[in-house]
Amino acid sequence: MRKIYRILPALLLFSFNAKAQAPKIIPVVVHILHEYGPENINDLQVRDAINVLNEDFGGRNADTSIVIAPYKPLIANCNIQFRLATKDPNGNCTNGIEHIYTHNTAYGDDAAKISQWPRDRYLNIWVVKTVNPGNNEGLAGFAYEPSLVTGPDYNKDGIMINNAFFGSIGTASVSTRHVITHLAGHYLGLLHPDGGNACMDGDGIADTPPTSMNPPRPCNPTPPNFPEWRICDTSVIENVQNFMLSSYCSVMFTPGQATFMNQTLTTSVASRDNLCTASNLTLTGTDSATYSNLPLCKPVADFFANKYYLCEGGVISFTDVSWCGTASSRSWTFSNGTPSTSTAINPTVQFNTWGWQQVSLTVSNSTGSDTKTVNNYIFVSPPWYDYWATFTEDLEASTFDNTWIKENMENTGSTWQRTNNAGVSGTHSILLNDMGEDEGLRDVMISPSVDLSTCSNMSLNFKYACASSTSNSNLMTEMLKVYASTNCGATWMLRKVVQGTTLINNGMSTGLFVPGNTSTWTTCNVALNAGDMQANVRFRFEFTAGGASNSIYIDDINLSGTLGVNEYVNDPFHMSVFPNPSAQQNIHVNYFLPKESCVEFAVKDILGRAVFLSGKIKQSAGENNFMIPEGDWMHSGIFFIEVKDGEATEVRKLVIGN
CA 344, 345, 346, 352 torsion: positive or negative? Predict the structure, then answer.
């Protein structure tokens, strides 16, 4: 105890001076990195976290009541206040909170510190789904002392924190709310009182004696001498309740720590001395005059859907997650939707027209409006299938771009594409060039639909060739997942995972990898479940970039198995179309009629609009042929040929190229 009370008079003097001085204000921007999951926390939780910071730094947090008697006089008011910025780096109105869609939310390391605002003007805080610097998963967060983010490491400055530890409401909890305070202490230069070597080090501050946290200390030591908190020096009670210890009974800063953090804000190291200046407070809109009458900003439109693929006639729920300024009104439009417009916050819409659908949202308040429009946002599958039973894609035909769906979720330069520079049995394959892309970036391709309803024991197999840009196997974290869907892609069921060195079957390549002979390719077999044998099945190939990705090629995608006896249950006319693909020429339709009938032929484009109608034609029973003549509608694209006789309908896809 002597060590603590010997410095007590000076500490009380500091406390008096702190109360007499105006608080130092630190402008804050919070970047919420998300994939439209619960990690996309709302602004109320952000403001709650800032309130927690200010209570803790002011020594006003309610749980200081648990501080043991010897340390109660040392509960510090740090005289530091945090305020969300009201002006962004360009002087535009902001509420100090950004919501950013990015895969980086699952890779909360230094590389995830995107959209950094100038660190001499703002404290940057990134809120993510997972914190894992150096693949050290499970951390609540991390921050560096100013001396560690100088020079070229300036872009590491700021706080990274898991959303579950940011604030006390929403996805966070009261029991974990002080984590942000601990990290802000590091940002202002504080070390752990247990140091890097337990009792041998400490943090260099007189009123936080060296402390050992190994083994962990109980939060309720035995009074009056508290022997459980006397490990390093039995004559000194350690400050186990200090914010800078990794303990859930951490509830206070000491005056010595408060002095240290205030001094940090006067040094040029990592530009900390500019944060609290009057000019910077005006520049960031955190001055008291601005804060006494907070501005209302124009909203930024944003939304997401609970699914992005569905069968014709399916229903989708949309959620408005617009940010910045609070919207007072909103206007939705949905192409081919029922309803086609809405002013609801979170509308539900039915789509009865197959093909790609556009969604748009405009949000407004008294200061302005913003619109987000996404073309090809929702894909509605038609009620028919593209292939029946067996399916082969060798990529030698040029139908890949027209029949497969590609997702480049963050609009980067890389996406799945057909290439002619490598192949197994030919010269073509599917290429994804992920060289230089961030770890965790995902790219997806989705197959045409296949009718497997009359099949059993089906399996999917394909060949792949993949390389890395590193020889370090620990960085070969690439992953390929294969999914199946029986409801038009509304939900996906995982069927295969190939990852790491198994996926990297060609080791390191110093340049962009291109497969050579057939020995560079590996066959992957995907077992399908009995439940996958449905009438409208699609397959999803999802590649996740690793720590040093290069390129991956896929070729010879095949479905094989046992065909059922009722092969034509969904093929009433046993219809075939040729040539298909066609080069803008006469199209022949062969079909079988069980009896004499009047049939009609129609050609529809991908939006379901009829571009050719034959009218009713009387045909005899048996094999028949109909020629669809050339017409102005013939141009490169996907069309659908429909045959019906009043009792049944059958549809086949037609691909027209140049």
Answer: positive
